[in-house]
Structures are given as structure tokens and as C-alpha cells.
């Protein structure tokens, strides 16, 4: 009973899928997918909000030199004695403070915006990288399923032919059962691959920010994305995004160190002006209570003492700067090795393409010759099945190799920070 219910559910699911598949599909190329992801991806929208906030803070970072204004007023009504007597007053003031930290705060806002802009661009590139890999993975999976279906169709035709031979007494029951098993044993593998394809397609739609119930059709083939056999890498290590990111962190840390020094040693100049009036019910006119300009200068001395918090904070900032400089040197070495290994990996995969193409040709020729011999009775069914399996493996290995080569080139382009698809097309 449980198996019957499960079968009905699966049948209904595939029926619904078949029904939606008959609806008009939206054709999407890899470039269309990149544009959709850039416009609709939720993660990028959140990153853009953060970047806009940093941009607004950067544009208003000068507000530290803006004076502060205040105004106040009061009314006093006595509760005892002469109830008709009252006093009133109002006053206003303006205050301006100048400190060396204003310079570092303005620079900090600019550096944070530039860092945020770089982070946003990195996020856009990461989304594009994921989209392209998902797109080509779907193409690869689709090609693999198509190969398996063609192999299954061949096995089905062979089984039907053997069944006719068996009915005519020209084939043993054992050979018939072997051909039947060879045909039917492929169905679970194909169904599992189709479910995996649907799951990957759902992730792909989520990345693109399009509804899950929208039907899409991928336009393109893995063979169209095979990179050129030769390419040139002209970027220096210093120009790599991973190295530039640490260099930006060093600039921020230098500014933070300067700000800490200003806080420990820097003077503060303060200028203020206040003005006030007061009056009462007993007097005529207003009396001036404040018309004062005040200037002050303060210089912190704790920073000159090595055991104070100010001096210790400066030393901590110096240590952080030194650590980042060491990270930069290490990243240059690591990035250089990664770059060399990526290039070697791509060149190796490119050199193996000719061998894989030759393997497919050999496997195809072997299968054709074995099929002819089987039809003439000089080869058994097991030999034919082995030849068919070898052909399917050769084709699948070639498609898998092409997909891995495309991903390796995409990773290299991401490491270099160059536009995707530009490597070898200079």
C-alpha cells in the first residue's frame, strides 16, 4: 500500500513537471543569466544597501568641522508671595572644536567607502562566477543525461531485437535476460540524474532571482565555452585582487594608527560664543546676561607616558600594522604559487583534450565493429555491452573534462580580476 501511494505521488510529480514543461519556456544564455543575477540577486541587493550607506557617510564626513548650535528659554512663576511677579530668559550659543582627528575621520570614511565598493564589486564577481559555473554545470548534466538516454534507447532496441530472436528460437533465455537487465538497470541512474538536474535548476533560479515556477531553457553548449588553446597572463602579483585587498587594509590601518596618535598627542582647539537676555514683570526692557567669546586649547599629556592607555593603544596599532604587512608578503607568495598552479592545471587539461577526443573515436569505432560482429553471431552480448559501456564512459569523461576545464579558466579569471570570458581573447 505504501509503495502504491509513493508511486502515485511520483507519477503526479512527473505529470505536473511534464505539464509545466509544455508551457512556453524562457530561453536564457549565460550572459542573460549574468545580467539577471546582477539585477535580482538578493545578496547583491543587501550589499548595495551597505555600499550606499558608506557612500552617504563619505559624502558627509566633513560634518566634523560643522559648528554646533543650541538655544534655550525659560519662564519662572513664583507660587508664593507676589504671584504677579515672574521672570523670563532666553539664550543661544555656537561652539566649534578643531582637532587633528578630523583629518583621519574624513579619510577613514573615504577608505571605508572604497573598501566597501571593492567588496561590492567582489560580491558581483562572485555571483557571476557562481552563475557561470551553475549554467555550465546544468549544460554538462543535461548532456550527460542525454548520453545516458541514448545509451538506454540503444539497450532497449537491442532487448526488443533479442526478444524477437528468442521467440524465433535463435537466442537463449540467458542472453535475453542479460539484455533485459542491461536495459532496465539504467533507468534508476537516469531518474536520479534528472532529479539532481531539477535541484540544481532550482538553485540556479534562486541565484538569478526568478520565480521557481517559471520555465527556462538554457541556450548554449559546453563546446561553445571551450577556452582558446593559448592565452597570456600579463598581471603582476601586486595587481591581483587578493593582494590589493590587503593593501587597502594596510592603508586603513595606517590611518587608524594616525588617528590613535592624534588622540594621544594631538591638541584640541575650541571656540564658542554665547549670548543671552532676561527680563521680569517688574522691570522694563531686557538685560543682557551673556555676550561672551571663549577660546581654549588643550593638549593631552598621557600619550607621552609609556604606561598610559594612549601610549599602549599606539603600540597596539603599530603591532596590527606590522601583522598586516607580514600578511601582504605572505599573500604575494601564495598568490604567485596559486597563479602558477592554475596555469599549469589549465595547460594540462588542454593538452588532454586531444587524447579524450581520440578515445571517443576509438570507442565509437570499437562499438560499431562489435555491433556488426554481434549481429553476425561472432560476438556475444556481454562483449557488445562492454563496448557500449566503454563508449558511454569515453563520451562522459570528455564532457566532464570540458566542464572542469571551463571552471578552471573561470577560477583563473576570478583570481586575476579580469572580465570573465576574456582570457585568451585579447
TrEMBL record:
Key words, A-Z: Cell outer membrane, Coiled coil, Membrane, Signal, Transmembrane, Transmembrane beta strand, Transport
Cellular-component GO terms for this entry: cell outer membrane; efflux pump complex
Broad class of where this protein is predominantly found: membrane
Sample GO molecular function, one term: efflux transmembrane transporter activity
Any coiled-coil regions, as ranges: 311-366
SUPFAM superfamilies: Outer membrane efflux proteins (OEP)
Record's signal peptide: 1-18
TM stretches of this protein: none
Subcellular location: Cell outer membrane
Domain of life, per lineage: Bacteria
Family that this chain belongs to: Belongs to the outer membrane factor (OMF) (TC 1.B.17) family.
The name this protein goes by in its record: Outer membrane protein TolC
Species this protein is from: Treponema bryantii
Amino acid at each position: 500500500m505504501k509503495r502504491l501511494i509513493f508511486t502515485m505521488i511520483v507519477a503526479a510529480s512527473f505529470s505536473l513537471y511534464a505539464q509545466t514543461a509544455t508551457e512556453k519556456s524562457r530561453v536564457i544564455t549565460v550572459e542573460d543569466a549574468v545580467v539577471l543575477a546582477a539585477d535580482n540577486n538578493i545578496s547583491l541587493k543587501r550589499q548595495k544597501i551597505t555600499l550606499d550607506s558608506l557612500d552617504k557617510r563619505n559624502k558627509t564626513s566633513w560634518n566634523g568641522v560643522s559648528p554646533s548650535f543650541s538655544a534655550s528659554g525659560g519662564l519662572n512663576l513664583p507660587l508664593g508671595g507676589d504671584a504677579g511677579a515672574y521672570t523670563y530668559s532666553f539664550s543661544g550659543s555656537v561652539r566649534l572644536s578643531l582637532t587633528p582627528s578630523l583629518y583621519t575621520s574624513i579619510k577613514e570614511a573615504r577608505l571605508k567607502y572604497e573598501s566597501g565598493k571593492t567588496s561590492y564589486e567582489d560580491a558581483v564577481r562572485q555571483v557571476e562566477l557562481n552563475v557561470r559555473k551553475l549554467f555550465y554545470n546544468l549544460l554538462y548534466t543535461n548532456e550527460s543525461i542525454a548520453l545516458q538516454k541514448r545509451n538506454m534507447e540503444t539497450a532497449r532496441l537491442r532487448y526488443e531485437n533479442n526478444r524477437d530472436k528468442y521467440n524465433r528460437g535463435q537466442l537463449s533465455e540467458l542472453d535475453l535476460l542479460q539484455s533485459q537487465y542491461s536495459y532496465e538497470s539504467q533507468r534508476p541512474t537516469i531518474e536520479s540524474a534528472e532529479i539532481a538536474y531539477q535541484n540544481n535548476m532550482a538553485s540556479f533560479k534562486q541565484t538569478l532571482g526568478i520565480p521557481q515556477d517559471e520555465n527556462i531553457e538554457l541556450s548554449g553548449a559546453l563546446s561553445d565555452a571551450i577556452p582558446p588553446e593559448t592565452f597570456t597572463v600579463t598581471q603582476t602579483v601586486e595587481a591581483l585582487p587578493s593582494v590589493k585587498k590587503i593593501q587597502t587594509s594596510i592603508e586603513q590601518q595606517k590611518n587608524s594608527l594616525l588617528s590613535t596618535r592624534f588622540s594621544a598627542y594631538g591638541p584640541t582647539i575650541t571656540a564658542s560664543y554665547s549670548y543671552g537676555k532676561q527680563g521680569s514683570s517688574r522691570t522694563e526692557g531686557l538685560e543682557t546676561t551673556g555676550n561672551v567669546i571663549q577660546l581654549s586649547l588643550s593638549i593631552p599629556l598621557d600619550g607621552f607616558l609609556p604606561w598610559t592607555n594612549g601610549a599602549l593603544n599606539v603600540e597596539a596599532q603599530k603591532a596590527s600594522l606590522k601583522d598586516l604587512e607580514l600578511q601582504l608578503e605572505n599573500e604575494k607568495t601564495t598568490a604567485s604559487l596559486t597563479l602558477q598552479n592554475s596555469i599549469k592545471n589549465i595547460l594540462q587539461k588542454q593538452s588532454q583534450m586531444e587524447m579524450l577526443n581520440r578515445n571517443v573515436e576509438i570507442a565509437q569505432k570499437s562499438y560499431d565493429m562489435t555491433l556488426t560482429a554481434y549481429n553476425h553471431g561472432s560476438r556475444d552480448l556481454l562483449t557488445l555491452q562492454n563496448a557500449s559501456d566503454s563508449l558511454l564512459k569515453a563520451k562522459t569523461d570528455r564532457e566532464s573534462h570540458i566542464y572542469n576545464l571551463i571552471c578552471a579558466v573561470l577560477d583563473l579569471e576570478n583570481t586575476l580580476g579580469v572580465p570573465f570570458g576574456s582570457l585568451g581573447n585579447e
